[in-house]
Amino acid sequence: MFKSMKFRQPVSGASTERTIIGQSAVVVGNIVSQELVQLKGHVVGNIDVNGSPNAQLSVLSQAHVEGDISAQQAVVNGVVTGNIESTGRVELHAGADVKGNISYATMAIEHGAKLYGMMSNTHAKQH
């Protein structure tokens, strides 16, 4: 009945810096990066991951964000309490629990993901 979804992987072969925030870490403050950010811990603050074609934020299953996210690409499998704004793709995996609004260019939602908010396509706003 449902087709298997193909989720985007980071571009291989490209030299990219990766920031990993560990499961036991708690960050209180804003995070700004232009590359790959993998979040396993807890962030209380806004996250901005933009500026390069490979800029991607991954909120992993054990992670929790209390703040707004602005990212070129956003992959969510954890908890986000705040809005997500993306100029590219947003992916909500089965473990995602988002309490906030999402604006996106393209979107993928896996069965089991939870969204308590509104979705809006950024391309639709331009027409």
Automatic annotation (TrEMBL):
It comes from the Bacteria. It holds the Pfam family Bactofilin. InterPro entries: BacA/B. PANTHER family: HYPOTHETICAL CYTOSOLIC PROTEIN, POLYMER-FORMING CYTOSKELETAL PROTEIN. Belongs to the bactofilin family. This is Cell shape determination protein CcmA. It comes from Limnohabitans curvus.
